Amino acid sequence: MESTLNVFGSQDTSRIAGLAAGETLWLTIAMSVAGAVIFVIVMGLVALAWRGRGTARAWWIIGGGVVFPVVVLALLFTVSTLVLRSIAGPVAPAHVIEVTGKQFWWNVIYDPDGRALRDANEIVLPLGEPVEIRLKSSDVIHSFWVPSIGGKMDMIPGRVNRLTVTATREGRFRGQCAEFCGLAHPLMAFEAVVLPHDEFDAFLTDLDGDASDAVTPQQRRGAEVFRENGCIACHRVAGLSEAQIGPDLTRIGQRATLGAGMWDMNTGNLAGWIVDVGDMKPGAEMPSYNQLSGPDLRALVAWLEGLT
Amino acid sequence: MTVAETPPDYSGAHKGEDKTFEGVWDTPKGLRVLSSVSHRVVGRRFIYTGFAFFLIAGFLALLVRTQLIVPGNTFLDLETYNQVFTMHGTLMMFLFAIPILEGFAVYLIPLMLGARDLIFPRLGQFGYYCYLFGGIIVLSSFLFDAAPDGGWFMYVPLSTQAHTPGLSADFWLIGITFAEIASVTAAVELITAILCARAPGMSLTKMPIFAWYILITAFMIAIGFPPLIIGSILLEAERLLGLPFFDPTLGGDPLLWQHLFWLFGHPEVYIIFLPAAGMVATMLPTFVGKPLFGYGFAVAAVVSMGFISFGLWAHHMFATGLPILSLSLFSAASTMVTVPTGIQIFCLIATLASGRPRLTVPMLFILGFLSIFVIGGLTGVMLASVPFNWQAHDSYFVVAHLHYVLIGGMVFPLIGAFYYWAPHFTGRMMSERLGRWVFGLMFVGFNVTFLLMHITGLRGMPRRVATYPEGLGWDRLNMLSSIGSYILAAGIVLFVYDFFRSRRHGPIAPRNPWGAGTLEWLYPPVAPGFNFHAIPPVHSREPLWDQPDLLEAEAHEVEGVMHGLRDGRRETVGCDPVSGAPLYILRLPHPTWVPMIAALGMALLFGATLASAYWLSGVGAVIALAAFAVWAWEPSDSGVTRDAGMGHDLPVNVVDRRSHMHVALVGTMLVLMALFASLVFGLLYLWNIRPDAAAAVARPEALTAGLGGLCGLGVALAGQMTRRAALADRFGITTVLSLLTAALAIAAAGLLGLSLGPVDPWVSALGATLWAIVAFTGLVLFALVFWALFNAARRTARRVGPGQSMPDFNLATLAKGAGLMVVVAAALFVAGAYGGVG
The whole model's pTM is what? Predict the structure, then answer.
């Protein structure tokens, strides 16, 4: 199950690309330094006490056990609350994206109250604009986390959670399910792609239309294979099928990863996926299609790669 | 040396009158050793069994680290990995940490407090077998290829039938709940032993600090375990019967499970930490040669920690979408716990400063505890900050934090405690030289493994992932963590080797080898089975330091109470809970198979339920109930007075509130009330969180529920009248009144059930919870009826003599508790009928 994916967007709380991650990193550093200092002080007191020879005083306990922590904690709590207010305070979001966790992938709907544009396993965010991520689950509890952008929120069946994020840097940032959700939990990731405002709008407009047409004869054959083998029963490809059991494939050729953030999107991986899903992602519900003939498989892959 | 005055003989002084004092306390030989009830035997079994689970769980941890040593590893497949990390957490938390600490408490408390045994030795044996059989059930899941794989936290809906078909979750729920019986029984037993059986003059303020730690821990177990027990039962009922407690489509809520789980799970952390901290506070003064500095502060800190720990649970749920205001409140409460922790740490530091510390092996482990635990505490404060928590939660940062707290706060003190108390188990000292190696390996291995994980987590690696792709900045950190884990494991292996080596080859331990001040070192290791020939009066927290006569004389010549008593019975002295003044003679049971048979019946009940052989479950329940009846059938021991020496003429048992029987029942009622309160919490939570679903549920019948509530009042009243009549030795009326109590209890249960006639438990979570409340109240009423009928039968069979009214005295207490539950349930149903709940 060795991944061939070599180039990731960062998945690191210290390589910040979001408002919350930036504020929190600052808090993290401050608390870590304070913690280290306090640790050194306490250990120093242990060392001093070791040589103390009968000098214990009751006020040490009051001072070290009550006064000092209360002062430090009051300070910490105040700072922490200020940070909390700045990252979770009420903001009017410019966009809404609904993300539904599923075992073991992500269903994405842009503008769910309006145009309801469907996609999967990749989340595109506009640079510098607050976006409300509306979090749902259709099976078990998952958790939405893009460390570089910041914040983490669970996706709980029967509930709708809201997380407002503001991306502050262009690029690709990896996110991953953070709540244990069953067999393939470690293989449930995605990429957040941050685009400038115009490109984001263009992306949405693009998503509104049908999938790209098959151009070559091979691609046209690929579309037929897709239909003949029943792929349309589960996957949506706008203009061809509206099924919503598996991930939306309308623009699969445009995504950088395959299998919910686990593999590089390329011809070999795509073909391997179709032929033996279970090997590349144990626990995925899709059956393997190893009965496809070589030419049919190549046609199918060519067509899928052309869906951009 | 008196004999019973009047026939029939109610003195109970005939069981082993042909035996010597030593013979009475002999541990049975051969296979019959399994019938032993001595706290020394049971405590050691808890310790050794717990350590075996520790080794198994540690081995599983090594599998985890081996899988994660390189990215994309295929050493374990996903399913196996999930089973391995689930079982690692489960075994460590439920079958190692709490049982082994309870084992130390069971072993040490009577020795430290000046008692010859715990007060309820049979309960100890019963608890041990529940623990053993429950643990075996959980472990056996590996044999059936059905090891639980849903995490030690078993979050729903992942653990429901729809998402985890098969038996794996059932193994977990049933096995762990079974094993938890041991924790709860041990808690009741320890509360009673600490309050009722101390050496003459040992007032609460003169108790060794360890006893305070254990007392508070025991109360926390009594209140903290019930939410999980209720949660597990509800989840098992959802899996087995389809009752929709957690199903959001039927008005349930997955978060209800998390609330119940963490209402237990957070106090659990302190339940694990406090006994270990108590060990530290016991060992450290020994090596400083001075009493614990700030004893009063420490006690106050432990008590307040006990309270605060129940107000923090939601900090495990910061990312579940709770309102910001709740987050802030729980965040503030979570930081508050630093104060009592800080007080305890500074008490230790001040103690260090008050004398000349000796750097022995246990002391090394105490220093390890101090440094590691302080880091764990500081990262805990960081996690209490909501924004930071949103980044670090469910990442490896939390893995690092919790291991700093639990390994630093519990495992290091525990290994130190083994080195310290080993002479008690083996009669020999463990090696100072090997001990230093053990410490060095463990300390270095631990920090290499877990210090780096803070960084791994902040670099974005989530927990509970069986594998990870390369190139995310986690590769080298994981490699180093895995190497560290092998070093840590080498330390543990060396410790095990040293323990076994010292059994044969260690130097024979002298009397009081460390120069400690507490009473458990009065005898040369290994202390005799009866603990004390005579129980010495105590007027200091460190009697061996402040009462020189104790160590000057041979241990068996030390003066004290109960020395000359030769009733052929196991006996110890019962005390006033506060002052420690001798109050009565406690008669203790002799070795018996009955508790083991009861536990086997329970094992059959649980095992058969797991195998869906429900008729066999019934057989198991009948065996267990029959064994309980035999257990309680023996004649009462009270009503006679003995000369206990040192001017104390003590009655055998007393019939009032200070009696150990009554204290134990109050402890049990605490558990029952906490169970009931957990259900009520569930009801109110669902009612509040899903008003839409609540409005759709059929309503209970108010009149019937109200009548049931009246019957509940009647139960309490009849129970109280039974007590009065029994105390006045009016046998006939007592029998009639206890039958009346039983009749009213049956009526109350019936009426409560009838009032829910319109409510279908299968179509709504709220309806199911209403029925769960009736079921639980019914179970308590069943126990009351069983007890009332049982008392009546014993009286009729002339097993009860004049003045032996303790069972009826306690019946009143149980009846009042049960009556209260009925009234609360009825009030809720009436409120529901008018206000729109269920």
Answer: 0.95
